[in-house]
Amino acid sequence: MSFLQKNRSLQAITDNLLEAPPRTVLPLALALVLAIATLDHEIVTNISIGLLYTIPILISALCLNWWQLLLASLACAVLREHFAPFSWESHAVTRVLSALATFGGTGLLAAGLVRGRRMALQYGRELNEQNERRVEAENQVRMLVESSPAAIITLDAQGKVDLANQAAHEMLELPLGTLHGRSISEYLPTVANLLQAADSDLPYRSATNCRGRRANGETFLACIWFATYPTAAGRRMAAIITDTSEDLRDWQETSLQSLLRSSRVLVGSVSHEIRNMCAAISVVHANLGRIPGVAETEDYAALATLAQALARLTTVELQSVTEQPMERVSLDHLLDEFRIVVSPSLELAEVDLRILDHEGMPPVQGDRHGLLQVLLNLSRNSTRAMEGCQPKRITLQVESGADAVLMRFTDSGPGVANPAKLFQPFQPGAEAVGLGLFVSRAIVRACGGELYHEPSARGCTICIRLIPFSTGECQTEVRSTEITA
Question: What CATH code would you report for 148-243?
Fold first, then answer.
């Protein structure tokens, strides 16, 4: 066994003694004192073995405090003098005090060493425990980083990659482990610029969208959440990166489909109005034809040509509900999405939005994007109408009936002066071309529902009547319930 191993074994034995309980240490020390006193009494020679009392004093130092050690030392000094060959003769007090100083000093020194060693052991245990927790936390963070579907990287002060997970390598089309030490400017120049643009060591965090480049040269749209933090080696940055190219494509596709649906609804509604106008022109044309001599004029023929041209414009028809399948729309999700989208603009306009009784409502048939567009259009109209009014409040209440779901959209504005013209297009004084409510009602009607004005004591109330979703054949016609008062 080497010296180092022997030293470690001795240290382990000593540390085990330091952990011994008082109920074991004190009886052992007392037994040693009695044994030494008995042996000193039996020895008849002029040799004293009182120095052996140091051993039980050292053992007692494991569990006694300073004044208890002094009492034990005094007792051992008295026993040493009592059983000495020349007990209690001349200079007995001097010998007792000398023994007390020896035993007491030894005990106090041992107690100090024991206390220091115990503190060291305690600190060692705490250090090991903290180290285990640190290792566990590092393992958890490493597992979280490696299993994250989003790319996570950390950069040093020079913009070089210090850590990158598997998702980062997959996003940049690099073999696993090859991103470490590379400059991020090769793939995300904006991130490198952000790191260099910081003019202080104060940490900051933000988000940005930028273009990135993969290792194969392909570009992509990246959404980045980043934060800087100071270290002894300089400022560093941690960033979470997601590839939003697919989301952008989906959003553009959804926006295009919504635009096409709205355009189809608008064109179909305008075609309906043109058909009404063509019918009136046809009646006038037929009446003029009964007047002698008018049918042979060029104006009469031009009027017929105009009517035919307008009739051809009306060949663009609204798709019926049976031709365009309606999807299942959850009102809970629709209204939650509406609240998320419209809340920032309403807060800026100091408008209080209250959505009542919408939880647990049955799903309705319709187009989710179209209905969301209707709600956004109603909120914009109400916000403009409530300018200068106090308080500014929009209340949306949902009611469920046997054959319909009704949403009442009420604002605290001045109300509508002429409800009969509320849904007419191209109204004088309207913002833009005045097609908002006209298109909104067309969208709701395309969903098999109805949009109408309901008289109220204060403000304006617009009702959206929708059909509950059914797995069977959807209703195609809804009787208009518009109230004109």
Answer: 3.30.450.20
Residue 311's pLDDT is: 67
Residues of the chain with CATH 3.30.450.20: 148-243
Nearest Cα neighbor of 241 from 153, 151, 162, 145 is: 151
- Residue 245 CB coordination number (10 Å): 15
Q: What global pTM score does this model have?
A: 0.48
Distance in angstroms (rounded) separating the CA atoms of residues 475 and 324: 12
Partner residues linked to 462 by β-bridges: 409, 453
- Whole-angstrom Cα distance, residue 236 to residue 195? 8
Could you tell me the strand order of the sheet in which 234-243 lies?
161-164, 151-155, 234-243, 219-231, 205-213
What are the tokens at 187?
A: 């793939």
Other CB atoms within 10 Å distance of the CB of residue 22:
11
Q: What is the mean pLDDT of residues 125-132?
A: 92
| Residues 6 or more apart in contact with residue 395 via CB below 8 angstroms | 354, 356, 408, 409, 410, 411
CATH of domain 327-466: 3.30.565.10
Contacts of residue 213, Cβ cutoff 8 Å, sequence gap at least 6: 186, 187, 188, 219, 220
The token duo for 107 is 């005990």
Which residues in the chain are classed under CATH 3.30.565.10?
A: 327-466
First to last CA, the chain: 108
Counting Cβ atoms within 10 Å, is residue 458 exposed (0-12), middle (13-18) or buried (19+)? Answer: exposed
Rounded to an integer, what distance in angstroms lies between the CA atom of residue 23 and that of residue 26? 6
Question: Mind listing the pLDDT tens digit for each residue in 431-458?
Answer: 544 567 878 888 888 888 899 888 887 8
Report the pLDDT value the prediction gives residue 250, as an integer from 0 to 100.
63
Average pLDDT value over all residues in the chain = 79
